[in-house]
Design a protein that fits this description.
The complex is a heteropentamer of chains A (295), B (565), C (348), D (349) and E (394). With 565 residues, chain B is an alpha+beta fold. Chain B is built from 20 helices and 21 strands. In chain B, the strands form six sheets. Chain B has a six-stranded mixed sheet with strand order 15-19-14-18-16-17, with helices on both faces. In chain B, helix 13 crosses helix 15 and helix 17 runs antiparallel to helix 19. Chain D has twelve helices and eleven strands. The radius of gyration of chain D is 21 Å and the shape is globular. The two termini of chain D are 26 Å apart. In chain E, 40% of the residues lie in helices and 21% in strands. Chain E is built from 15 helices and twelve strands. Chain E has an eight-stranded mixed sheet with strand order 6-7-8-3-9-10-12-11, sandwiched between helices. A four-stranded antiparallel sheet of chain E has the order 2-1-4-5, covered by helices on one side. In chain E, strand 1 and strand 2 form a beta hairpin. Chain E is elongated. Classes of the chains: A mainly alpha (295), B alpha+beta (565), C mainly alpha (348), D alpha/beta (349), E alpha/beta (394). Chains C and E meet through helix 11 and helix 12 of C and helix 2 and helix 4 of E. The structure holds adenosine-5'-triphosphate (2 copies) and magnesium ion (2 copies).
Amino acid sequence: MTSLRFMLYQLRRNPLSIIGIVIILTFIIIAIFAPIIAPPPEGHIDPYMIPRDGYSPIPKPPNEEHLFGTTEGQYDIFYGVIWGTRSAFRVGLIVIGVVLVVGIVLGSLAGYFGGIIDEIIMRITDIFLAFPILILAMAITVALGPSPDNVIIALIIASWPSYARLIRGDILAVREEDYVEAARGMGGSHLRIITRHILPNSIYPTLVMASLDIGAVVLYAAALSFLGLGAQPGYVDWGQMISFSRNWIVGPPGNPLAYWYTVTIPGLFILLFVLGWNLLGDAFRDILDPRLSRK
Amino acid sequence: AEGEEVTEEVAEPPIKNPTIFIQATIGDAETMDPAYAYDSASNEQIQTIYDPLIFYDGASTTEFVPILATEWTISEDGKIYRFKIREGVKFHNGNDLTPSDVEYSFERGMVQDYGMGPQWMIFDPLLGIGTSSRTDDGLIPLEDITNAVEVDGQWVQFNLAAPYAPFLQILAGSWGSIVDKEWCIANGDWDGTQASYKALNDPSPGGSPLQSIANGTGPFMLERWDAGVEISLVRNDNYWGELANFERFITKVVDEWTTRKLMLEAGDADWVYVPRAYYGELEDVEGLTVYKDLPQLTADAFFFQFDISPESPFVGSGQLDGNGIPLDFFTDIDVRKGFAYAFDWETFINDALTGEGQQVASPVIEGLSYYNPDQAMYYYDLAKAEEHLRAAWGGEVWEKGFSITIAYNAGNERRKTACEILQAGLFAINPEFKVGIQVQQWPTMLRGMYMQLLPVFIIGWGADYPDPHNFVYPYMHSSGDFSEWQSYSNPEVDALIEQGIAVVDPAERQAIYYQLQELYIEDVPSFIVAQLVGRRYFRDWVQGFIFNSIDPAEIGHVYTLSKEY
Amino acid sequence: MELRAYIVRRLLLIIPVLFGVTLLIFGLLQLFSPVERAALYVTDPKQFANIAEVIEKYGLDQPVWVQYGHWITEIFQGNLGWSKVVSQPVTSAMLNFLPATLELAIFATPLIIFGGIFLGSKAAAHKDKAIDHATRLGAIVGWSLPTFWLGLMLLMVFYGLFSGLFPPERLSTEMNIVVHSEAFTQYTKLHIIDAILNGNGRVLLDSLRHLVLPVITLTVVNLAFIMRLMRSSMLEALGKGYILTARAKGLDENTVVSKHARRNALIPVLTVSGYIFAGLVNGVVITETIFNYKGLGWWAWQSAVNLDISGVLGFALFNGVLFVFTNLVVDLLYARIDPRVRLGGKVT
Amino acid sequence: MEVLVETRNLETHFPILKGVLRRPAGAVRAVDGINLTIGKGQWMGLVGESGCGKTTLGKTLLRLLSPTSGHIYFDVPNETKDEMDLLEESAANPTKLQALRRRYDLATYPSKQLKAIRRRMQLVHQDPYTSLNPRMRIKDIVAEPLAIHKLMPRKQIRDRVTEILQMVGLTDQHLRRYPHEFSGGQRQRIAIARALATNPDFIVFDEPTSALDVSVQAQILNLLGQLKRNQELTYLYITHNLTVAESVCDSIAVMYVGKIVEIGTPIELFHSPKHPYSQALVLSTPIPDPKRKRGRVVLPGEVPSPTNPPPGCRFHPRCSRTTEECERLEPELRQSGNTSWVACWHPLS
Amino acid sequence: MNELLIIRNLTVKFYTYDGVVQALDNLDLDIKQEETFGLVGETGCGKTLTALSILRLISPPGRIESGSICFNIDDGDEPIDLLAIGEEEIRAIRGSKISMIFQEPSSALNPVYTIGDQVSEVILLHRRQELVNKAIETITALLAGRNSLVNILANPMRLAERSLYQKIAQNPHSLWPRIVGRIPIMRRLLQRLKDEAKKMAISMLKEVEIPDSERVAQQYPHQLSGGMEQRAVIAMALACSPSFLIADEPTTSLDVTIQDQILELLRRLKSERESSVLYITHDLGVAAQICDRIGVMYAGSLCEIARVDDLYANPLHPYTKALLAAVPKPGEEPHAIGGTVPDPLNLPSGCRFHPRCSRAIGMCREHVPPMHELASGHFIACHNYQGETGGSSC
Ligand SMILES: Nc1ncnc2c1ncn2[C@@H]1O[C@H](COP(=O)(O)OP(=O)(O)OP(=O)(O)O)[C@@H](O)[C@H]1O
Ligand SMILES: Nc1ncnc2c1ncn2[C@@H]1O[C@H](COP(=O)(O)OP(=O)(O)OP(=O)(O)O)[C@@H](O)[C@H]1O
Ligand SMILES: [Mg+2]
Ligand SMILES: [Mg+2]
């Protein structure tokens, strides 16, 4: 409790982290109230598909009916960005959640027991880490076929190794701490030592990275969608909405910025979302930095 | 009035790169080998580097002009074609063109017979429908191939297995290009022996010795092929005919539309590939010439699967209980008709195609011979659709509804829209008619069609040569490309198709193809979504564009183009 | 000496890793059914008639290990398959597209590394001053920017408003002809260097112009990363005892920062250079795609969207190998900078 | 005197991995043949310079480290020990020997068996800032050994925790706090409370006060004395502060590079050290009295590396009395008085 | 004896997020020429801060609020206030006139530079004149050498070097060395200075009894033992023969036998160089062995100052007494001081020791006791002794 209050106190102190919190809270509200903010039109079967107002390829500028205008193919931008918040959270939270679990399990095994287990797990992570995340995720989505779920799977496969590594490293550091040895000296079981002593003290850097990475994961997912490897057209996804704008970057000769809304609005949503998590993660890092925490 | 004229002249910007024709398109050529090439990007390059025996006369798809053949005869029974070869023609490397080069060109093609290449079009007439070099017993005898084409003095003779009406059209394609025998052999290509036949038959991708080199008699010579980036051709200054108007012909691969648009607007490109979605964007741009309403020989259609595989994941429960469909769902013609009436062509053509398309009744689309403009067709009529769907499956369909998933290939927005329109139409008739739409990767989709997993799929066919046979066969014949996947089989149709190719008399053929068009509407094995009509946007300084619907190059033949005001 | 054993060990470890890399890549390939893999060769449904023939010809229905055997043998012979999208063998595609990417990297990498280090140290040295706040904000926003969006926004501005200033692709048509003419020798295929070697100012200028936007796009995000890292590791270094010692010696603040703090602060930065490399590769894919800059990244993207599996896998393999070796180089550099590693004592 | 803990030829080596394959190439011989006997109720001090192996010895005794060879007997009757030695010498009945060792020799206990014995022996670390899990409350820290050994039902645990905390001078109010809310001295009390929770017989203190100020150190030392008297405890007290050892211990062992060189009572050790190293140690310990300037002999050189200790007597390179014998032969630890042992060829008298 | 350093009213505060920490409170302290002054006290009482204040090395969020530190650079000159002079001037003093040895030798040395580099750095900085003169001498000697081929080739270069050094010699603040130092190839011209500095560094290392000092000069800190590292640090501190040396717990992390060696070394060097030392420690034993006078600190202020014999024989302040009683002695239980050190954020009012003091009176709670001289040279800040002079009260 005390440390939580302390954390909140520290958070409050840092204006940037306040901004981060506000941004993320806003997005949470948007995600929760998406059906109210942007109700799906009647007869619309799947709310996660952006409703279309006709099939014309030419985007329409913001108007009363379409607050942010429409993209090519007449997908409503407002609806897309609002509901896109949900899919952003979905991708970010699921990927990071799964990766954390996998990373914690494998990282603990490797870090705590060491030896051959460690060697094997670390060589496997080496193999995965030999690929930049986006490239590996790209190859995996290609192999699995593009769909929002496969993007999630691909990002999980591509990003668990760095977590396993990070956790392993932190566990290695904590494993030698005196209180861990004290617990061993009391006869505590491996499970108890890992869960009560090692993880609570080594998990924080990972959690910080996780909070920073939620933004990064969403960025990767958006990049995949943008490259045409993500969701099917029309799925509520910011990256894809930007890819819709791709051919409308420059307007007609007299009015080069005619279609500014198609690229700017979804882009700003991504930027703010990622920025929010980064600010928050940064604040967390500052708070959890042992050098800064009080003695 | 005088002042106005002056300003107009001033408004004409100077011609950029007057000696070069620059086009920006998407997708690179796959090969420079005429026997292997089966994609329009390659075909386009090949047809400017190599010459065929004959070529279409202007915009016509039935009249020909002599190119490397100065004259030709067709025997009465339609089985022997003879061509007199032009004299004094030189290949780019200086070698002389001889009739044996012509013989070699076709025989070499058949010897190579790349499995996914165009050679079936040569085998079909010369050795009989459905043949290829590979059989279950191994390769067909080399003599069969060498006997099909013979040199007779300055003449070259083709011996057809049966009459084959569109044979001349086939010869006008890039697969009819004439290569230099001597040069080919020097470069490791077929040397006439059995061993080399075996070794070179069905190469892997890129495995042809002529993959990236070229030596033709055409108006341009291959200067540089920066794969994926650009192809640069230079003028053949020893061309046997009139020299081309450009010193260079450059094809740039530019995937990004915005970039292509800017290139065109700035005059850095003389022609760019404009996806139809962006026609509107160029509407008011100055300095461009646009050619509109050009019918394309390509048509997408919705295909019904008559015998869905039990493994299909797209049929819901697999029963007519409102949550799926039975595997033989589409054998009921009322279902098919109901679907056809539920498709809103007007919206599709006006919105998705921005009006650049037209509804056609059958695979015999406009621009092909024997196209029947008066053929009745389906139209958007929910009442009629309801009527048929009420009747289908003894009323059970109407009562319980159904749920299916239809598929289109990733990246094809047009087909996606078509699916959505069909979905909306059916939903409007009865909310229990649930259509899911599934995007699939191209190979996955192909597999789905091949393994009969897809209850309904949307796909299209582009012409190889401008003849109705090239369309009715895949769409309707029981062993046609699409209809075989559909398990669609109508013996009457099969008989008519086989007859249609074998008769020579145009009147007779017309009757047959009119009847096939009628049968297509009656049977609805599939229904055509639209025939596309296209546009071409050139810089206004480009002159001499001739539209021929079968031309693989959207700019037509670069040989006819020039840059001037 | 321990360091040599360490290097040898690192080199030996590369073998299983590379072996694993091929396994992983091949495993991905197995996610496609034989029909699908055969269909990868098909661009048009009319070519599909021969699918069974294709499956047999390429042995796609053979047991996995047999296929792996074939595949790996081919790879050892330098044959990574055929890249459909650019109609050439994967190996030659890589060779052809490498110079363009290299050119991009040659400009972006120093900007990223030196810029990041410079700004990061500046910010740390002036902690809580205006410059620090500005860099921090810039870094965090830069780090949050979606690369592709930044690229598109640049496109919007420079293609729309100032069109023609910084054009797409690598060279303009005229310069391209010049470069490929006989009068111009392509020593390296890096246009900049070739232009200098040929003494051709116009080509040089033209290729520089074409590099501006991609380099900016590529730089911003990664620069932000290094900057942040450098700042925090610099702050950490500045808190160390030896900094106090250096100050107590009477050294001026500049020397303290640049001589005593920076070198130590560089160590953690160096350890993540692997990530910078990964960031560059990620960025290259997107940047080249957006600016139609025909390099490895563009090719990888084309391969991916066109399901050119050999292309994607070839690129991944190439990357994997490159990355493993980059890390080795980083380790060696690390040993160079940090005597504790070089002279044993902290080698783990 | 009843013996509680005894080691025979105890050795703990840490392998040094070298080369491409990371093969062991030598070892840190941190504990290198130690025979130590601690009587029940004894407060045994262990002094020596940094790196000489004190901590390693302490941890090996508690089996937090596995010895390379040698035996550790904890509360084993002397007869049994002798029997085992006899059996080993004669090699007559290996199975029986093995069975006995399994049962009595702590050095060979598998981990399951260890758990039972852990209740009876505890360790208190040097640095109270790192020995308490920063993310656990005091009550959980102190209750943990009880929970691990399931010594009592949950409800009683709380009472017991309060009781122990009172014993070390802390109150109920502290129960719900985290370690960082305490000063160093208080933390060390908590660590001691944790060690006491299971009513152990034997506690190893690894420099428990070296991170604390003198005033706090005094508090802790007082507490330890008090607890020992009340709870009938046996201590092994590791320290490098000779004055502390002198003031509190019953007996002091001096360690040098993995070996014990001298054991004796504080008085013996301080007034008539027998080993030259002990003497140097005693003389270089600063005394807080400016008037008592000792006859200074600054010991030259540094402690040799335990990786390859000097041959013969390990102290000979720094010793002023070295003879040729010292360079060749290693002196055994021999009884030199009633309560004192020394390992030296030329002990001082 | 003259005062070398006079600290008056030194107040240091830390402005933390949790509040203001008054780390030093109106500290007064005199250090005489050639004496060793010991500063003892428990952890966190402000010993290190006092030392850092003298060098003006307190970094944010800490700040020297008020006070003066007057330092007698050369005998006879007006003492200068270290807190009032400019940044340049204080830097010239750091390391040359006043230098400091830090507590933890392993963190005081930069891990990425060799010992030789780090020692010669300070020589290069503060003994440039000497170096330049030596270098000129060497070059002149070389120029006068035989007319061998090597010499003929090298001489123009040497002439250039010499003129550069002469420029520096004429004007120590000349910009030349800085300019030359920036230009990659020209930098070689300054190499001779570095070599000279290296030589001096090695002789310095010899002086602190480092065996094999040539080799050690080329080693990195992690290759040395703690005792050797501390010797290197001492060499660094003494390289410019400072008149005032601050030693902040220089032996705390070392073993007794090594500590003994280091103390002996410091004692010798101090007497050889006739400098003053401020010796900070919390070990009363060490303080007794090495100091001439001792100041006892508690929570940011001094409570007692006396000559060493006086303090141990006759401690007056209750805190000093308690501290001495807490030191373990054979045969007797150490006496603990009750209570704990106050929270620096929340210091008690009045005398800071009063909550733990057995002799606290009402006044202690309200008024800070001033420091006054009870007997000659024996200063104390305690209300119990207010008004008394001389003698002991208990
Ligand atoms: N886990 C380990 N691996 C390798 N070497 C070790 C390990 N633990 C200790 N050592 C080495 O064993 C020797 C003895 O270490 P130990 O910690 O027992 O000394 P110590 O007497 O307790 O020293 P200190 O007074 O510094 O605590 C040292 O040289 C040390 O480096
Ligand atoms: N960065 C800081 N922020 C807040 N307070 C500080 C800071 N640095 C020092 N202090 C305060 O200054 C006080 C004195 O610190 P100083 O380092 O001088 O103690 P010390 O007597 O040298 O202790 P030690 O014996 O542990 O070295 C500390 O109690 C602390 O409260
Ligand atoms: Mg120890
Ligand atoms: Mg201090």
